[in-house]
Amino acid sequence: MLVAITREVSPSISQCELTHIPRQEINVEVARSQHLQYENVLRDLGCQVRRLSVEPNLPDSVFIEDTAIVLNELAIIARSGVASRREETRSVAEVLRGYRTIFQLTSPGTLDGGDVLQIGRTLFVGNTSRTNESGIKQLIDFISPYEYKVEKVQVEGCLHLKSAVTLVGEETLLINRSWVDTRSLRAKEYIDIDPSEPYAANALLVGSELVYPTIFPKTLRRLKDRDISVRVVDVSELQKAEGAVTCCSLIFEEKWPDNSKQIT
Ligand code: CIR
């Protein structure tokens, strides 16, 4: 069974962090209703959705992906590159403790979950304003005993690695090549976003189905032309907060046979 941890949209979302897009008014009610629909799609795809309580004073807390990296054998609690997001991890750690052995990133390390793209036993990690060398080093120390490896990826012009590239099939990446250096990715197959839709590379793969925003019709056509099965969601209000589809959930297998064994 897949678990999807989500968190209700904060009433203070209008005070969210913004790095690459201008501030626009966000309608909290519309954002909430879009988020509910997103959760419903996750349920339809077989996830057991666990929604954490609202955090009125943490504007970006709906973007729960950034707070942790959950692997089959362990979970790493992240430490955001922006101070305003660091409190978000407390409640996430409490919940994840019920599923995984927990490791915690500490100062001066920073890392956002949106910078970590897992392909098999490799974690590609974006070198961005949110993720620093110490964060990457700590991640390597936590996961190496479990036989995962880390590959650093250069990212320019967008917030996170997963703004620029995500997995849309077993070995297929959806990519905006102007933001990410493909030499370090080594995927078998790439699907390029339509150049008129630069933010279109963020897609959420759940099993063999893709959750994808409605507002990128040209890139959506490219995905469908490759016979990828897509469930579209309208997340336009959340996109005004520089969010996308991967960032609104943490999805993982509920039980993993080895996750009670801690290797230190
Ligand atoms: C931030 O700047 O942290 C939020 N406004 C948006 C975070 C989006 N997270 C993600 O794509 N993983």
Topology:
Blueprint: E1 2-7, H1 28-44, E2 47-52, E3 68-70, E4 74-77, H2 89-96, E5 101-104, E6 116-119, E7 122-127, H3 133-143, E8 149-154, H4 161-164, E9 165-169, E10 172-175, E11 189-192, E12 204-206, E13 209-213, H5 217-225, E14 229-233, H6 236-239, E15 250-253
Parallel strand pairs: 1-2, 4-5, 7-8, 10-11, 13-14
Antiparallel strand pairs: 1-15, 3-4, 6-7, 9-10, 12-13
Bound molecules: citrulline.
Residues 16-17, 19, 60, 63, 65-66, 85, 114, 159-160, 162, 241-244, 246-247 line the site of citrulline.
Summed up, what is this model?
The protein is 20% helix and 26% strand.
What is the spatial order of strands in the main beta sheet? 2-1-15
- Coarse structural class: alpha/beta
Total number of distinct structural domains: 1
Write down the overall mean pLDDT: 95
Computed over alpha carbons, the radius of gyration is 17 Å
Please state the second-level CATH architecture.
5-stranded Propeller
Oligomer: single chain
**CATH domain fold name:** L-arginine/glycine Amidinotransferase, Chain A
Q: What coarse outline follows from CA principal-axis ratios?
A: globular
Describe this protein's structure.
The chain has 264 residues and is of the alpha/beta class. It has a single domain, classed as L-arginine/glycine Amidinotransferase, Chain A (5-stranded Propeller), CATH 3.75.10.10. 20% of the residues lie in helices and 26% in strands. It has 6 helices and 15 strands. A 3-stranded mixed beta sheet has the order 2-1-15, with helices on one face. Strands 3-4-5 form a 3-stranded mixed beta sheet, with helices on both faces. Helix 2 links the parallel strand 4 and strand 5. The protein is globular and about 40 Å long. It binds citrulline. The site of citrulline has 18 residues, from loops.
